[in-house]
Amino acid sequence: MKTLIVGASGGLGGALARALVGRASQLFLLGRRASVLATLAGAVGGEALPADLGSELEVQAALAETGPLDLLIYAAGAVSKASLRETSRMEIERLEVANSWGLALTLKYARFNPAARVVLLGVYPDLVMVPGLFAYAASKLGAEALLGVARKEFRREGVRFTLVRLPAVATGLWTPLGGAPKQALNPDEAAQRILEGTLVESPPELLEVR
Ligand SMILES: NC(=O)c1ccc[n+]([C@@H]2O[C@H](COP(=O)([O-])OP(=O)(O)OC[C@H]3O[C@@H](n4cnc5c(N)ncnc54)[C@H](OP(=O)(O)O)[C@@H]3O)[C@@H](O)[C@H]2O)c1
Fold first, then answer.
1. Does residue 46's CB lie within 6 angstroms of at least one atom of ligand 1?
2. Are 49 and 62 in contact (CB under 8 A)?
3. What is the whole-number distance in angstroms between the Cα of residue 6 and the centre of ligand 1?
């Protein structure tokens, strides 16, 4: 199972990479922090692909390295806390790149083997449509819409798409929000549940992890 994890240098991406050892025949790890990716690649026997999702050329080059995929997990993301009146355009763009545009570019350049799967790590809308999180909510829910269209456009290629809704998971994503809530899931536990729910004969269009 030739696998690409986008956002592999993150909390969930790293946990998914470790959980895929022995299941993925080849594991490609994409993110910006080259040193984190290199360490993870050494630990899981994967290949580091440092790239910024804001650069179409870098994404294109990374996807050319992977060749056709059996599994693509989009685990990149970013969050920030600011009200509509306070958020800068630069901050909106940073979140859009990580949460949504990066997914568009990845799908644009990805090539798939028959019966390939794409997994997007998403949110429960009610948990993110709250004051201070508009840029996160808009970009995450925009990515869901993107996935819905891609599902139809890639049907002829036989690609199956799963949106995974996640509760709070204790990763660095929470740092700008002051830390993860006490009840947050451990990333390794979340990764196990994501893979159990998606690596099945007929992957569901929606997987709700509680
Ligand atoms: N943690 C939660 O509670 C939770 C809940 C629901 C959904 N999710 C979703 O799960 C996914 C993973 O989240 P996480 O908690 O693992 O977050 P995280 O630990 O902050 O990891 C985020 C990842 O995104 C990558 N990234 C961000 N901007 C990038 C860019 N411009 N180019 C390339 N890579 C970029 C980071 O790479 P670098 O650091 O190397 O730049 C990192 O690998 C996100 O989509 C998030 O929305 C998380």
1. no
2. yes
3. 9
Q: List, in order, residues 6 or more apart from 45 with CB less than 8 Å away.
A: 21, 27
Query: How far apart, in whole angstroms, are the C-alpha atoms of residue 49 and residue 31?
Result: 7
pLDDT in tens, 68-115: 999 999 999 999 999 999 999 999 999 999 999 999 999 999 999 999
And the tokens for 186?
């451990």
CA of 191 to the centre of ligand 1 (A): 14
Question: For residue 7, which atom of ligand 1 is closest to its CA?
Answer: 43
Q: Does domain 2-208 have CATH number 3.40.50.720?
A: yes
Q: Quote the strand ranges of the chain, DSSP E.
A: 2-6, 26-31, 47-50, 69-74, 112-123, 160-166, 206-208
pTM, two decimal places: 0.98
167-185 per-residue burial string, b: 16 or more CB within 10 A, e: under 16:
ebbbbebbeeeeebeeeeb
Task: Tell me the average pLDDT of the chain.
Answer: 97
Sign of CA dihedral 80, 84, 90, 96: positive
Q: Is 173 in the pocket of ligand 1 (CB under 6 A)?
A: yes
